[in-house]
Amino acid sequence: MKYFRSIVAAMALLSLPAMSASADSSDRTDDPVTMGYVENVYVGKLGLEMKGKLDTGADSSSVFARDVHIYNKSGKDDWVRFRLVGKNGRTVRYDQNVRRFALIKLKKGGTIRRPVIHLPLCIGGVSGLAEVNLADREEFEYDFLVGREFMASRVLVDSASTFIAPGSCETEDRE
What we know:
This is Retropepsin-like aspartic endopeptidase domain-containing protein. Keywords: Signal. This protein is mostly beta strands. The chain has a single domain (2-65, 99-162), classed as Acid Proteases (Cathepsin D, subunit A, domain 1, Beta Barrel). Helices cover 10% and strands 49% of the residues. The strands form 2 sheets. Strands 1-2-10-3-9-8 form a 6-stranded mixed beta barrel. β4 (66-73) and β5 (77-85) form a beta hairpin. It is globular. Residues 1-23 have low confidence and may be disordered.
């Protein structure tokens, strides 16, 4: 079984893009870290802990954002004000520049336009900047969905395991 998992993990790694233009490439490692399909995700400089699903079927990452308000700053740039709620109920408010808008296909048909921002992430000691779209994930089990753009060249996903990430995310450098 261990041999089979190694082969599956190697095949998954080969199918991932070598580098994502939207993710922070300076934090890439030579040796990807094996993690479960569900791990704790630490978001932002404050390290808000959220339960996340590592989804190899999703291109980009998505987070359950509440009270989302898009507005113009200085009459030209799109900004978004929102809040995230962590596993322990702690809330962090954000006010960030919108990098772009993504059109997301809905299961019921049609599309929805979502703001995309950059957020620092850390999962099992693997950290970097991720492009994240702000979504209403209230009907989903996981508040954070980590997509391939962040995981490429960094993470291998063991689909039979949860919470096995070997490293930790230090909070000393966070505000």
